[in-house]
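EI: anyone free to look at a 222-residue chain?
SC: sure, send it
EI:
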Amino acid sequence: MNSILLVEDDINIIKSLSEFLKGEGFLVENADGQTKAIEMLRQRQFDILLVDISLTEGNGFAVCACAKEMGLPVIFLTASGDEYSVVTGLDMGADDYISKPFRPRELVSRIKSVLRRCGKMRSVIKLADVTVDTEKGIVERNGSDLFLSALEYRLLLVLLNNRGIVMSRSKLLEDIWDVTGDFVNDNTLTVYIKRLREKIEADPQDPQIIKTVRGIGYKIDI
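SC: here you go
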């Protein structure tokens, strides 16, 4: 599962884009300015940087320079029609750019393309005898497709994106709503957890992948 550092100072963009990217199978962390972003790049490991050129504190060019020193691919988020910034960014070694406003699915396509070109695409996750291919959107056990529905797959991705963390039912409902746009209530969540377990667990009555934390929620920590 690929990790993204999103550097953006617009809170609304951070929230909506982070949730969307998580729903597409990425791990996402964010920074709102140059100083914090560079500190995170030096302390943690990421697969790609998404950075807005114009930041309230500092600028995206300095963050890009730091990322390129570490061999990290970079996609610039730019204001529409800002040709100078685009050219400057590409001259600095940025791998791609996308102008605001952009369609989230187009950005995901750009991200995957850059990761493939840079040899950093990590799309296969193992969960015991279950394999999740986040690029193809396929979940298999021993080579056989488990044929998850769209909502079952999204639910699995949300849990995977928070691997090792207990997800409350309310948080799961919030994240699935954000990702799918479909109405999901508490009873529906119970049904989909049950269906998902029936497909991915060797013994759904004794789940080893999606575990219940009584009174709190669910987690994947395998």
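EI: The domain at 3-117 is CATH 3.40.50.2300 (Rossmann fold).
SC: 👍
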